[in-house]
Amino acid sequence: MTIHFMSKSKLIIRYWLLLIISFTLLSLISSFSVLQDNPDAILGDWKTGTGNAIVRIYKNGQKYQGKIVWLKEPNDPETGKPKIDRNHPEESSRSRPILGMINVWGFQFDEKNSWKDGNIYDPKNGKTYSCKIKMISSSSIEVRGYIGISMIGRTDTWARQDSK
Predict the structure, then answer these.
(1) Mind listing the pLDDT tens digit for each residue in 7-49?
(2) Which terminus of the chain has a lower count of CB atoms within 10 Å, N or C?
(3) In this structure, is residue 1 part of a structural domain?
(4) Nearest 5 degrees, angle CA 18-CA 19-CA 20?
(5) Domain check: are 70 and 138 in the same one?
(6) 119: which strand partners?
(7) Distance separating alpha carbons of residues 44 and 22, to the nearest angstrom
(8) Global pTM?
(9) 27: alpha, beta or left, given left = phi > 0 and alpha = psi -120 to 50?
(10) Contact, 73 vs 81, CB < 8 A?
(11) What is the dihedral angle through the alpha carbons of 133, 135, 141, 146, rounded to the nearest 10 degrees?
């Protein structure tokens, strides 16, 4: 009967590999559970999936809302003036600037990293949709706008932006 012994260097490598994997798994599990239990985890600046705008989500009473705080192209190329809400269904609102506009509102924390019962306004077409938000990680959220039921809609992934 032959007994094979691992070399000391192989043992050290396996030990460190096991330690790294364990630490990584522990970090992922603990960060996910903290995320789930924190209704305010959504607060902050989020760049839309197209990268054309940054929306600052903040608390308003017991609900969450957001306003456009940055636009990739803030001025209308035709006029050279700040972009306005020209597609709004109410004529009286068509002169309001898009920069600074509240475009997501009414969200309440549901459970396990999701917010429900909100609305999202799309200034490109002047329409308002029901909306829900799900936090995928501390740096990524899925924003789903829909009509009627959530199955009929569109999801956009937004990325957290560092405060400047």
Answers:
(1) 777 767 776 666 677 656 555 554 444 455 799 999 999 999 9
(2) N
(3) no
(4) 95
(5) yes
(6) 105, 130
(7) 31
(8) 0.77
(9) alpha
(10) no
(11) -20
